[in-house]
Specification:
Cytochrome Bc1 Complex, Chain D, domain 2; 7 helices; 106 residues; mainly alpha; binds heme C
Length: 106
């Protein structure tokens, strides 16, 4: 069943639909559990946690779907993504992709 949902999500992605369907306001609400590590707007304070702000929508959707499916393995992110629905993933990606990324100072 999970695999079916994932496949359906991929099909929807290929069709180019979810960008319009995704809701960044709902994504902000859903991002509260992510904020501890990634920062409230996706600009994480610690280098250990990747910045999500301003990242491409498609990239975020793929990263989360891959953690969920076990295609991308990470002990911290796997449980974070495990319970996300395709809709959650799209909403979260819509939220983070709309945040301004801080300029990185080296
Ligand atoms: C306990 C800390 C923690 C929490 C909570 C957390 N993350 Fe992460 N996240 C990480 C770490 C560490 C990585 C880097 C993992 C890796 O190298 O694959 C990561 C990676 C990611 C990536 C991939 C970024 C990239 O540049 O490839 C995305 C997307 C992401 N997290 C989204 C989320 C979302 C959405 C939530 C909330 C549902 C969340 N994370 C909650 C620690 C966390």
């Amino acid at each position: 069943m999970k695999k079916m949902l994932f496949t359906a999500g991929c099909a929807a992605l290929l069709a180019g639909g979810p960008v319009l369907a995704a809701n960044p306001v709902a994504g902000k609400e859903k991002s509260k559990t992510c904020a501890a590590c990634h920062g409230p707007d996706g600009n994480s304070a610690a280098a250990d946690f990747p910045r999500l702000a301003g990242q491409h929508y498609d990239y975020l959707v793929k990263a989360l779907a891959d953690y969920k499916a076990g295609e991308r393995k990470n002990a911290i992110m796997a449980p974070q993504a495990a319970n996300l629905s395709q809709r959650d993933i799209e909403d979260l990606a819509a939220f983070y992709s709309r945040q301004a990324g801080l300029s990185v100072k080296y």
